[in-house]
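Lab notebook, page 48
Experiment: co-folding of the full assembly
Goal: obtain a model of how the components sit together before planning crosslinking
Operator: M.T.
Materials (sequences as entered):
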Amino acid sequence: MSITIVTKINGNSITATADASTSLLEFIRDTLEMKGSKLCCNTGECGACTVIYNGKPINSCVTMAADANGAEITTIEGLAQGDKLHPVQQAFIDTGAVQCGYCTPGYIMSVKVLLDRTTKPTADDIEEAVSGNICRCTGYNKIVDAIHLAADRIAGRA
Amino acid sequence: MEYFEPRSVSEALSVLARHGAEAKIIAGGTDVMVDIKFKEEPGGLVNIKKIPGLNGISENGAGLRIGPLTTIREIETSALVREKLPVLWEAAHQFASLQVRNTATIGGNICRASPSGETLGPLLVLDAKAKLAFGDGQKTVPFTSFFQGPGKSSVGVDGLLTEIDIPYPPAGSKSVYLKHAVRGAMDIAMVGVAVLMTSDSGKNNIQDVRIGLAAVAPTPIRATKTEALLRGKPLTAALVKEAAALASTEASPINDQRSSAEYRRWIVEALTRNGLGQTWKAATGKEIA
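Observation: model returned without errors.
Model output:
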Protein backbone atom coordinates (compact mmCIF):
# COMPACT_ATOMS: atom_id res chain seq x y z
CA MET A 1 0.00 0.00 0.00
CA SER A 2 1.40 3.36 -1.04
CA ILE A 3 1.72 6.09 1.55
CA THR A 4 2.15 9.79 0.89
CA ILE A 5 5.10 11.23 2.77
CA VAL A 6 5.44 14.93 3.49
CA THR A 7 8.76 15.65 5.10
CA LYS A 8 11.66 18.02 5.33
CA ILE A 9 15.07 16.70 4.35
CA ASN A 10 18.12 18.94 4.61
CA GLY A 11 15.79 21.92 4.84
CA ASN A 12 13.90 21.05 1.66
CA SER A 13 10.20 20.26 1.83
CA ILE A 14 9.53 17.01 0.03
CA THR A 15 6.34 15.21 -0.90
CA ALA A 16 6.70 11.69 -2.29
CA THR A 17 5.12 8.28 -2.02
CA ALA A 18 6.54 5.05 -0.66
CA ASP A 19 5.29 1.55 0.00
CA ALA A 20 4.47 0.78 3.62
CA SER A 21 7.33 -1.72 3.82
CA THR A 22 9.91 0.82 2.60
CA SER A 23 12.61 1.85 5.05
CA LEU A 24 13.61 5.45 5.47
CA LEU A 25 17.01 4.51 4.02
CA GLU A 26 15.43 3.03 0.87
CA PHE A 27 13.25 6.12 0.59
CA ILE A 28 16.28 8.41 0.82
CA ARG A 29 18.51 6.38 -1.49
CA ASP A 30 16.09 4.97 -4.05
CA THR A 31 13.17 7.39 -4.16
CA LEU A 32 15.05 10.63 -3.49
CA GLU A 33 18.28 9.33 -5.07
CA MET A 34 20.49 10.70 -2.33
CA LYS A 35 23.20 8.06 -2.09
CA GLY A 36 25.30 9.43 0.76
CA SER A 37 23.58 7.40 3.47
CA LYS A 38 24.85 3.86 3.11
CA LEU A 39 23.10 0.52 3.06
CA CYS A 40 25.17 -2.09 4.83
CA CYS A 41 23.81 -4.49 7.49
CA ASN A 42 20.18 -3.42 6.97
CA THR A 43 19.47 -4.57 10.55
CA GLY A 44 20.40 -1.50 12.58
CA GLU A 45 23.71 -2.86 13.80
CA CYS A 46 26.41 -1.04 11.84
CA GLY A 47 25.33 2.61 11.72
CA ALA A 48 26.33 3.21 8.07
CA CYS A 49 22.79 4.47 7.41
CA THR A 50 22.74 6.95 10.31
CA VAL A 51 20.73 10.11 9.67
CA ILE A 52 19.60 12.83 12.04
CA TYR A 53 15.89 12.59 12.74
CA ASN A 54 14.37 15.49 14.68
CA GLY A 55 17.81 16.17 16.14
CA LYS A 56 18.63 12.58 17.06
CA PRO A 57 20.86 10.04 15.32
CA ILE A 58 18.89 7.01 14.15
CA ASN A 59 19.41 4.01 11.90
CA SER A 60 17.40 4.86 8.78
CA CYS A 61 17.48 1.21 7.65
CA VAL A 62 15.20 0.09 10.48
CA THR A 63 12.94 3.14 10.45
CA MET A 64 9.79 3.18 8.38
CA ALA A 65 9.76 5.69 5.54
CA ALA A 66 6.27 6.52 6.83
CA ASP A 67 7.91 7.91 9.96
CA ALA A 68 9.47 10.67 7.87
CA ASN A 69 6.01 12.23 7.75
CA GLY A 70 6.16 15.53 9.57
CA ALA A 71 9.77 15.00 10.62
CA GLU A 72 12.91 17.02 9.97
CA ILE A 73 15.74 14.90 8.67
CA THR A 74 19.36 15.70 7.96
CA THR A 75 21.52 13.45 5.82
CA ILE A 76 25.21 13.70 5.01
CA GLU A 77 24.26 15.73 1.90
CA GLY A 78 22.88 18.44 4.16
CA LEU A 79 26.05 19.23 6.09
CA ALA A 80 28.25 21.15 3.66
CA GLN A 81 27.43 24.77 2.91
CA GLY A 82 28.14 25.06 -0.78
CA ASP A 83 31.80 24.11 -1.25
CA LYS A 84 32.57 24.48 2.42
CA LEU A 85 32.52 21.16 4.23
CA HIS A 86 31.13 20.87 7.74
CA PRO A 87 33.94 20.93 10.35
CA VAL A 88 33.30 17.26 11.14
CA GLN A 89 33.68 16.30 7.48
CA GLN A 90 36.85 18.40 7.15
CA ALA A 91 38.34 16.89 10.32
CA PHE A 92 37.76 13.33 9.05
CA ILE A 93 39.71 14.25 5.91
CA ASP A 94 42.48 16.08 7.72
CA THR A 95 43.16 13.32 10.25
CA GLY A 96 42.90 10.51 7.70
CA ALA A 97 39.91 9.04 9.50
CA VAL A 98 38.66 7.64 6.21
CA GLN A 99 39.91 4.34 4.84
CA CYS A 100 37.43 2.64 2.53
CA GLY A 101 34.99 5.38 3.48
CA TYR A 102 31.82 3.32 3.56
CA CYS A 103 31.14 3.91 7.26
CA THR A 104 32.15 7.57 7.12
CA PRO A 105 28.80 9.28 6.40
CA GLY A 106 27.20 7.41 9.29
CA TYR A 107 30.03 8.31 11.65
CA ILE A 108 29.89 11.93 10.63
CA MET A 109 26.15 12.14 11.39
CA SER A 110 26.66 10.57 14.84
CA VAL A 111 29.56 12.92 15.57
CA LYS A 112 27.65 15.97 14.38
CA VAL A 113 24.90 15.31 16.91
CA LEU A 114 27.49 14.83 19.66
CA LEU A 115 29.30 18.07 18.85
CA ASP A 116 26.04 19.99 18.50
CA ARG A 117 25.52 19.08 22.16
CA THR A 118 29.05 19.64 23.44
CA THR A 119 32.35 20.77 22.02
CA LYS A 120 34.15 19.29 25.03
CA PRO A 121 33.23 15.62 24.67
CA THR A 122 34.66 13.23 27.25
CA ALA A 123 35.99 9.82 26.26
CA ASP A 124 32.69 8.36 27.52
CA ASP A 125 30.68 10.85 25.44
CA ILE A 126 32.61 9.84 22.33
CA GLU A 127 32.30 6.15 23.02
CA GLU A 128 28.56 6.46 23.52
CA ALA A 129 28.07 8.66 20.48
CA VAL A 130 29.76 6.28 18.04
CA SER A 131 29.14 2.93 19.74
CA GLY A 132 26.45 2.22 17.16
CA ASN A 133 28.83 2.75 14.24
CA ILE A 134 31.21 0.11 12.98
CA CYS A 135 34.35 0.78 10.93
CA ARG A 136 35.30 -2.55 9.46
CA CYS A 137 38.66 -1.12 8.36
CA THR A 138 39.05 -0.64 12.14
CA GLY A 139 40.39 2.91 11.83
CA TYR A 140 39.03 3.85 15.22
CA ASN A 141 41.94 5.84 16.62
CA LYS A 142 41.89 8.26 13.70
CA ILE A 143 38.14 8.63 14.02
CA VAL A 144 38.59 9.65 17.65
CA ASP A 145 41.34 12.06 16.53
CA ALA A 146 38.92 13.54 13.99
CA ILE A 147 36.27 14.03 16.67
CA HIS A 148 38.71 15.93 18.88
CA LEU A 149 39.94 18.04 15.98
CA ALA A 150 36.40 18.88 14.87
CA ALA A 151 35.45 19.77 18.45
CA ASP A 152 38.49 22.05 18.77
CA ARG A 153 37.72 23.76 15.47
CA ILE A 154 34.03 24.28 16.25
CA ALA A 155 34.96 25.72 19.65
CA GLY A 156 37.63 27.93 18.08
CA ARG A 157 40.47 26.14 19.89
CA ALA A 158 42.16 25.06 16.67
CA MET B 1 0.98 -4.96 2.35
CA GLU B 2 -1.76 -3.03 4.12
CA TYR B 3 -0.91 -0.10 6.33
CA PHE B 4 -2.91 1.36 9.20
CA GLU B 5 -2.27 4.41 11.29
CA PRO B 6 -4.88 4.37 14.05
CA ARG B 7 -5.37 7.60 16.01
CA SER B 8 -6.84 6.08 19.17
CA VAL B 9 -6.62 2.90 21.22
CA SER B 10 -10.17 1.95 20.22
CA GLU B 11 -9.39 2.46 16.53
CA ALA B 12 -6.26 0.32 16.92
CA LEU B 13 -8.27 -2.41 18.62
CA SER B 14 -10.82 -2.47 15.83
CA VAL B 15 -8.04 -2.71 13.23
CA LEU B 16 -6.46 -5.54 15.23
CA ALA B 17 -9.82 -7.32 15.56
CA ARG B 18 -10.03 -7.42 11.78
CA HIS B 19 -6.37 -7.84 10.84
CA GLY B 20 -4.53 -8.91 14.01
CA ALA B 21 -3.90 -12.42 12.76
CA GLU B 22 -1.84 -11.31 9.75
CA ALA B 23 -0.82 -7.73 10.57
CA LYS B 24 1.95 -6.68 12.90
CA ILE B 25 2.00 -3.77 15.29
CA ILE B 26 4.94 -1.47 14.61
CA ALA B 27 6.29 1.31 16.81
CA GLY B 28 10.01 2.10 16.71
CA GLY B 29 10.45 -0.52 14.00
CA THR B 30 13.92 -1.68 15.00
CA ASP B 31 12.76 -5.31 15.17
CA VAL B 32 9.82 -5.33 12.77
CA MET B 33 11.72 -3.65 9.92
CA VAL B 34 14.38 -6.37 10.18
CA ASP B 35 11.66 -9.02 9.93
CA ILE B 36 10.28 -7.30 6.83
CA LYS B 37 13.70 -7.30 5.15
CA PHE B 38 14.99 -10.70 6.20
CA LYS B 39 12.06 -12.88 7.24
CA GLU B 40 8.49 -12.73 6.14
CA GLU B 41 6.67 -9.59 5.19
CA PRO B 42 3.56 -9.40 7.38
CA GLY B 43 0.15 -8.97 5.77
CA GLY B 44 -0.05 -5.49 7.19
CA LEU B 45 1.49 -2.96 9.52
CA VAL B 46 -0.37 -1.20 12.30
CA ASN B 47 1.68 1.87 13.14
CA ILE B 48 0.62 2.85 16.66
CA LYS B 49 2.90 5.87 16.98
CA LYS B 50 0.10 8.33 16.16
CA ILE B 51 -2.01 7.24 19.12
CA PRO B 52 -1.89 10.02 21.73
CA GLY B 53 -1.30 9.25 25.39
CA LEU B 54 0.86 6.16 24.93
CA ASN B 55 4.19 7.78 25.72
CA GLY B 56 5.94 9.46 28.57
CA ILE B 57 7.08 8.74 32.09
CA SER B 58 5.12 9.97 35.09
CA GLU B 59 4.79 9.31 38.79
CA ASN B 60 1.74 7.29 39.62
CA GLY B 61 1.30 6.95 43.38
CA ALA B 62 4.23 4.92 44.71
CA GLY B 63 5.61 4.05 41.32
CA LEU B 64 6.15 5.10 37.73
CA ARG B 65 3.81 4.80 34.83
CA ILE B 66 5.62 4.41 31.53
CA GLY B 67 3.81 4.64 28.22
CA PRO B 68 4.68 1.85 25.79
CA LEU B 69 5.77 4.31 23.07
CA THR B 70 8.41 5.79 25.38
CA THR B 71 11.79 5.28 23.73
CA ILE B 72 14.62 3.49 25.48
CA ARG B 73 16.61 6.73 25.26
CA GLU B 74 13.83 8.63 27.04
CA ILE B 75 14.00 6.05 29.82
CA GLU B 76 17.80 6.25 29.91
CA THR B 77 17.76 10.04 30.19
CA SER B 78 14.91 10.25 32.70
CA ALA B 79 16.10 11.53 36.07
CA LEU B 80 13.07 9.88 37.68
CA VAL B 81 13.96 6.46 36.29
CA ARG B 82 17.59 6.83 37.25
CA GLU B 83 16.74 7.80 40.81
CA LYS B 84 13.79 5.50 41.48
CA LEU B 85 14.36 2.49 39.24
CA PRO B 86 18.13 2.26 38.74
CA VAL B 87 17.96 -1.36 37.57
CA LEU B 88 15.77 -0.31 34.64
CA TRP B 89 18.10 2.59 33.92
CA GLU B 90 21.06 0.18 33.76
CA ALA B 91 19.28 -1.96 31.18
CA ALA B 92 18.28 1.09 29.12
CA HIS B 93 21.85 2.37 29.27
CA GLN B 94 23.22 -0.93 27.95
CA PHE B 95 20.52 -1.27 25.30
CA ALA B 96 21.88 -1.71 21.75
CA SER B 97 23.26 1.61 20.46
CA LEU B 98 22.36 5.27 20.70
CA GLN B 99 20.69 5.11 17.29
CA VAL B 100 18.53 2.17 18.31
CA ARG B 101 17.73 3.64 21.74
CA ASN B 102 16.48 6.78 20.00
CA THR B 103 13.79 4.83 18.16
CA ALA B 104 13.17 1.53 19.97
CA THR B 105 10.31 1.67 22.45
CA ILE B 106 9.89 -0.10 25.77
CA GLY B 107 6.54 -1.41 24.59
CA GLY B 108 8.23 -2.96 21.58
CA ASN B 109 10.91 -4.54 23.72
CA ILE B 110 8.18 -6.02 25.92
CA CYS B 111 5.73 -7.16 23.24
CA ARG B 112 8.50 -8.66 21.15
CA ALA B 113 8.67 -11.10 24.09
CA SER B 114 12.20 -12.11 23.23
CA PRO B 115 13.83 -14.20 25.97
CA SER B 116 16.78 -11.79 25.78
CA GLY B 117 14.81 -8.52 25.84
CA GLU B 118 17.03 -6.06 27.67
CA THR B 119 14.38 -4.42 29.86
CA LEU B 120 12.57 -7.63 30.77
CA GLY B 121 14.77 -8.94 33.59
CA PRO B 122 14.57 -5.56 35.36
CA LEU B 123 10.77 -5.38 34.85
CA LEU B 124 10.46 -8.84 36.40
CA VAL B 125 12.45 -7.98 39.53
CA LEU B 126 10.58 -4.68 39.86
CA ASP B 127 7.25 -6.57 40.03
CA ALA B 128 6.00 -4.43 37.16
CA LYS B 129 2.62 -4.92 35.51
CA ALA B 130 1.31 -4.52 31.99
CA LYS B 131 -1.99 -2.82 31.30
CA LEU B 132 -3.54 -4.32 28.20
CA ALA B 133 -6.51 -3.23 26.15
CA PHE B 134 -8.72 -5.67 24.26
CA GLY B 135 -11.92 -5.26 22.31
CA ASP B 136 -13.89 -6.51 25.31
CA GLY B 137 -12.10 -4.59 28.04
CA GLN B 138 -8.87 -4.03 29.92
CA LYS B 139 -6.61 -6.43 31.73
CA THR B 140 -3.69 -5.96 34.09
CA VAL B 141 -1.07 -8.68 33.90
CA PRO B 142 2.08 -8.88 36.03
CA PHE B 143 5.16 -9.48 33.90
CA THR B 144 5.83 -12.63 35.90
CA SER B 145 2.93 -14.21 34.00
CA PHE B 146 2.97 -12.05 30.84
CA PHE B 147 5.52 -13.97 28.76
CA GLN B 148 4.40 -17.26 27.27
CA GLY B 149 7.21 -18.20 24.90
CA PRO B 150 9.53 -16.61 22.36
CA GLY B 151 7.43 -13.92 20.68
CA LYS B 152 4.33 -14.91 22.66
CA SER B 153 2.70 -12.90 25.39
CA SER B 154 -0.62 -12.02 26.97
CA VAL B 155 -1.06 -9.32 24.32
CA GLY B 156 -1.93 -12.00 21.74
CA VAL B 157 -2.77 -10.87 18.23
CA ASP B 158 -5.64 -8.53 19.04
CA GLY B 159 -4.53 -6.76 22.22
CA LEU B 160 -2.58 -3.57 22.82
CA LEU B 161 -0.16 -2.76 25.61
CA THR B 162 -1.30 0.63 26.89
CA GLU B 163 0.69 1.18 30.08
CA ILE B 164 3.58 -0.21 32.10
CA ASP B 165 3.15 0.22 35.84
CA ILE B 166 6.26 -0.12 37.94
CA PRO B 167 5.99 0.14 41.73
CA TYR B 168 8.96 1.64 43.51
CA PRO B 169 11.12 -1.09 45.02
CA PRO B 170 11.20 -1.33 48.85
CA ALA B 171 13.08 1.46 50.63
CA GLY B 172 16.72 0.58 51.08
CA SER B 173 16.66 -2.10 48.40
CA LYS B 174 19.64 -2.35 46.06
CA SER B 175 19.68 -3.66 42.55
CA VAL B 176 21.95 -4.47 39.66
CA TYR B 177 21.55 -5.57 36.05
CA LEU B 178 24.41 -7.61 34.68
CA LYS B 179 24.64 -8.38 30.99
CA HIS B 180 27.08 -10.75 29.37
CA ALA B 181 27.88 -9.92 25.76
CA VAL B 182 30.96 -9.67 23.58
CA ARG B 183 30.67 -6.25 21.97
CA GLY B 184 29.72 -3.51 24.42
CA ALA B 185 27.17 -1.98 22.11
CA MET B 186 24.58 -3.68 19.93
CA ASP B 187 25.14 -7.23 21.17
CA ILE B 188 22.11 -9.14 22.31
CA ALA B 189 22.73 -10.54 25.78
CA MET B 190 24.01 -14.11 25.97
CA VAL B 191 22.79 -13.91 29.54
CA GLY B 192 21.18 -11.10 31.51
CA VAL B 193 20.75 -11.23 35.28
CA ALA B 194 18.84 -8.66 37.32
CA VAL B 195 19.01 -8.81 41.13
CA LEU B 196 17.03 -6.68 43.58
CA MET B 197 17.75 -7.22 47.28
CA THR B 198 16.32 -5.80 50.48
CA SER B 199 17.97 -6.49 53.81
CA ASP B 200 16.20 -6.63 57.16
CA SER B 201 16.29 -3.55 59.36
CA GLY B 202 19.35 -4.79 61.26
CA LYS B 203 21.16 -5.34 57.94
CA ASN B 204 21.88 -8.91 59.00
CA ASN B 205 19.67 -10.98 56.72
CA ILE B 206 18.18 -10.92 53.28
CA GLN B 207 14.59 -9.87 53.78
CA ASP B 208 13.61 -10.10 50.14
CA VAL B 209 15.49 -10.90 46.96
CA ARG B 210 14.26 -11.05 43.40
CA ILE B 211 16.33 -12.53 40.59
CA GLY B 212 15.42 -12.12 36.93
CA LEU B 213 17.15 -14.21 34.27
CA ALA B 214 17.13 -13.32 30.58
CA ALA B 215 18.23 -15.18 27.45
CA VAL B 216 18.42 -18.51 29.27
CA ALA B 217 14.87 -19.89 28.93
CA PRO B 218 11.98 -19.64 26.43
CA THR B 219 10.92 -16.50 28.29
CA PRO B 220 12.65 -14.22 30.75
CA ILE B 221 12.07 -15.80 34.17
CA ARG B 222 12.31 -15.20 37.89
CA ALA B 223 14.61 -17.65 39.66
CA THR B 224 11.99 -18.32 42.32
CA LYS B 225 13.65 -21.35 43.91
CA THR B 226 16.87 -19.43 44.33
CA GLU B 227 14.96 -16.49 45.81
CA ALA B 228 13.26 -18.82 48.32
CA LEU B 229 16.59 -20.36 49.29
CA LEU B 230 18.05 -16.94 50.08
CA ARG B 231 15.15 -15.28 51.89
CA GLY B 232 15.64 -14.69 55.60
CA LYS B 233 19.31 -15.65 55.63
CA PRO B 234 22.58 -13.80 55.88
CA LEU B 235 24.61 -14.03 52.68
CA THR B 236 27.54 -16.31 53.38
CA ALA B 237 30.11 -17.52 50.88
CA ALA B 238 28.58 -20.99 51.05
CA LEU B 239 25.07 -19.63 50.46
CA VAL B 240 26.18 -17.54 47.46
CA LYS B 241 27.72 -20.62 45.93
CA GLU B 242 24.65 -22.74 46.55
CA ALA B 243 22.30 -20.02 45.26
CA ALA B 244 24.30 -19.38 42.09
CA ALA B 245 24.39 -23.10 41.31
CA LEU B 246 20.64 -23.36 41.92
CA ALA B 247 19.96 -20.38 39.63
CA SER B 248 21.88 -22.08 36.83
CA THR B 249 19.57 -25.10 37.16
CA GLU B 250 16.49 -22.88 37.03
CA ALA B 251 17.68 -21.71 33.63
CA SER B 252 16.91 -23.87 30.60
CA PRO B 253 19.16 -22.33 27.97
CA ILE B 254 19.60 -23.35 24.36
CA ASN B 255 22.59 -23.58 22.05
CA ASP B 256 22.62 -20.83 19.46
CA GLN B 257 25.05 -18.64 17.56
CA ARG B 258 25.65 -16.46 20.60
CA SER B 259 26.73 -19.24 22.94
CA SER B 260 26.20 -22.83 24.00
CA ALA B 261 23.70 -23.86 26.64
CA GLU B 262 26.50 -25.13 28.86
CA TYR B 263 28.34 -21.81 28.69
CA ARG B 264 25.14 -19.94 29.45
CA ARG B 265 24.66 -21.97 32.63
CA TRP B 266 28.16 -21.05 33.76
CA ILE B 267 27.46 -17.42 33.08
CA VAL B 268 24.14 -17.52 34.96
CA GLU B 269 26.09 -18.93 37.91
CA ALA B 270 28.81 -16.28 37.68
CA LEU B 271 26.46 -13.33 37.19
CA THR B 272 24.13 -14.49 39.96
CA ARG B 273 27.11 -14.77 42.29
CA ASN B 274 28.29 -11.29 41.32
CA GLY B 275 24.80 -9.80 41.47
CA LEU B 276 24.11 -11.22 44.92
CA GLY B 277 27.50 -10.09 46.22
CA GLN B 278 27.08 -6.56 44.87
CA THR B 279 23.52 -6.06 46.10
CA TRP B 280 24.30 -7.58 49.53
CA LYS B 281 27.22 -5.26 49.98
CA ALA B 282 25.22 -2.26 48.84
CA ALA B 283 22.17 -3.13 50.96
CA THR B 284 23.99 -4.04 54.19
CA GLY B 285 27.34 -2.32 53.91
CA LYS B 286 28.86 -5.68 54.77
CA GLU B 287 31.16 -8.10 53.05
CA ILE B 288 29.92 -11.62 52.48
CA ALA B 289 30.41 -13.60 55.72
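Interpretation: The two ends of chain A are 52 Å apart (CA to CA).
Next step: discuss with group before ordering constructs.
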